[in-house]
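During the reporting period, our protein records have gained a structure token line. One record among many is quoted in full directly below:
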Amino acid sequence: MNLLTLAEIRDDIRRFYNGRCPSDSGDLSLVGQPFANQPHPSNQLINMCVQRAVSEVNRKVRWGSSVLTTAITLQTANGPLAVPLTQFQTQGGPQINIVRRAWWNDSVNNSVLLYPRSIDAIERDRIDWMDQAPGIPNLYWVEGYTLYLWPAPNLDGTLGVRAGMGLLAPLSDVDTVKECPADYLPVFEDIVMAEVCAAQPDDSVAQAKLAFFGPKADRGKIEIASLFNDLSAQQQAGIAYKSNRIWSPVPVRRY
């Protein structure tokens, strides 16, 4: 199956809704456009529901992963360096939903795979993390939407992460939904259609179609989640202990 542009998705939604769309006449200039005498559902409504469908999938599925890097300057203050995840440049705004692993490279070619911890585990180990002078970073943790690099680097360098990402919504009529496997585009369209119908609670036609597309969309979300859970499991050596979104691969000492 080919990737679909935003305009082609609108055509499919109108086919689901009205049984046809203007471009079915063969006139490619009408792709993504409504009938002049039947403008409903509007381009604006469908575009909004595409955005909502992207958000819905991203909230329920840890979708894909990408390698991202950001430049870091040397630090002089003690303690960890707070790096907002928004500092990593991703298309379409903040997209990181989990940090799977991280590494550090500095200007003298020190290359370190950073050890993932949670701040709770660090404090249980009685590590005096706030007073540590800058040096070569060796671990990190994530709190909220910020990655903490510890100790803070004493040289300029590059912080890299393999991050769980989300679907990327189309930026224009000729753009596609990025990071979506082609075979799952029909599932995504079912979710969009359910959103279009749910956005019109006073429209009897929309509510009748929601009774059909709503359950399909719910099943589709489960299918997508199952796909990526399976893919993630295949990429891991075993089940890991999770704490505060970041897993700690070794048992924590208790006092």
In short: The chain is about 35% helix and 20% strand. Residues 234-255 have pLDDT under 50 and may be disordered. The longest strand covers residues 63-72.
